[in-house]
């Protein structure tokens, strides 16, 4: 009985070694040629930033475009008509062209932002004091200006911080995110 058990065990080990050998030889000879997949399955509605000149397949540019609800029902279930559309037949994607994204809600001591809210402006007109000034030199390299007859003149000021333009893309298909 013991000999039968040992023989069975030896055959199992031999078959396992043989199977590993066959797989290794097959791989070495190019028997497995499936493409590598280094990507991931995005969540529907996820927004990614890319330096590409286009959005990948199953993604659309976050350009405010109108989509049909019946073609993108899962995406509509997640974002509704927050970014536009009639909510019956159509809805819009967010439009992030020439915009900076900001987290919705309210941080401690900060302004409150609603999901989909837009705001801001590219130029602000400020009053700039233009005056005849007399500057007195100082020995410690500081200067004191004495201003007479000050007048305010509007001047356009750009509050835009230094930037790098990238492309925002929205996942049209993928995994429906759970609330957990």
What is the secondary structure topology, with strand pairs?
Elements: H1 2-28, E1 47-50, E2 59-61, E3 66-68, H2 73-79, E4 90-92, E5 105-106, E6 112-113, E7 124-136, E8 144-157, E9 167-171
Antiparallel strand pairs: 1-9, 2-9, 3-4, 5-6, 7-8
Compact description:
Residues 45-100 form the Phage tail collar domain. The chain has 180 residues and is an alpha+beta fold.
**In terms of structural class, how would the helical and strand content be classed?**
alpha+beta
Beta-strand residue fraction:
25-35%
Task: Give the N-terminus to C-terminus distance in angstroms.
Answer: 56 Å
Number of strands: 9
Mean pLDDT across the residues is 80
| The CATH class of the domain at 42-104 and 165-175 | Alpha Beta
User: Going across the major beta sheet, what is the strand order?
Assistant: 1-9-2
- Residue ranges: pLDDT <50 for 5 or more in a row? none
CATH architecture of the domain at 42-104 and 165-175, please? Alpha-Beta Complex
CATH topology value of the domain at 42-104 and 165-175: heat- and protease-stable fragment of the bacteriophage t4 short fibre, domain 3
Protein name: Tail fiber protein
Pfam families: Collar
Domain Phage tail collar: 45-100
InterPro entries: Phage_tail_collar_dom (IPR011083), Phage_tail_collar_dom_sf (IPR037053)
